[in-house]
Structures are given as C-alpha cells and as structure tokens.
Amino acid sequence: MTKHYMKYGLIISVLLIVYFLVLRFFNLHTLTVLSAFNAVIFGFGIYQAITNYKKNHTKFKYEKGFQAGLLSGAFASVLFGIVMAIYMYHIDPEFATTILEGWDVNLSNGPLTLIVSVLIMGLATSFVLTLAFMQLLKDSWNTNQNKPN
C-alpha cells in the first residue's frame, strides 16, 4: 500500500508543480482563482490511485480504497507544500506578500500562512474527492432478486 499511494502522490505533486511553473512562466501565478484547477489535478490522481488499487486487488474493501485515495492526496499535499515553502522562502519572497494583498489581511508571517493554506486546501480536496470517487467505485451491496441475501 505504501508504494501505491507514494507513487500516485508523487504523480499528483509533479503535476501540481508543473502547473504552477507554467502559470509562473506566463506570470499568472498570483491569480488565486487559477488554483481551482488544482482540484482537477488532485481528482485525476486520486481517481487513478483508487481504480489502480481496485484493479490490482480481487477483494476490494471500501476502507482500503479510501486509504489509497486519501493517502495519495495527503502525500501530494505535503510534497507540494514543501516545494511552495522553498519557492516562497528562497526563490520569490515577494510572492506571499503579493498573494496576501488580495486577501486584505495584515499578517507578519505571510509565507507560513500560505503554506498552511496550501496544506489545508490539499487535504480537504483529497478528502472530499476520495469520498466522491469511492461512491462511484465501491462494490454494491444490492443483491440480485433471484438470489437469497
């Protein structure tokens, strides 16, 4: 299981980093509305993690599928948070102030606020998407009408 969620968590985080760098290249990285596409990237990776886990296991349990999706998203959130911390503290220290100007808050520790926000948003997105995908991918408890319960 560990290799499984680490593999898909790494894929998700690489896609998030590439998306951020593309936005940075076009100087659109300060538009926070574009971070909504991160949910699409999380959704793609979590769906792939759950379906791949289901395909490779004959007996698919709900909790194992939920664990595969949630841990993939959590691992990706932590990796992306680390990359964003490096970016905000070492590469572009003005990035945090630029983002926080749009939030209309006066905080002395802007990068830490953004890193915590990235982690919370990533974990929340992972949780919600995993719940949604597990409703689609779980085995049905409905029985055929010709068979006894």
TrEMBL record:
Lineage, top-rank taxon, reads Bacteria
Enumerate the UniProt keywords alphabetically. Membrane, Transmembrane, Transmembrane helix
What Pfam families does UniProt report for this protein, alphabetically?
DUF4199 (PF13858)
The stretch of residues making up the signal peptide is: none
The transmembrane residues are 7-26, 32-50, 70-91, 111-137
Name of the molecule in the record: DUF4199 domain-containing protein
Q: Which organism is it from?
A: Planktosalinus lacus
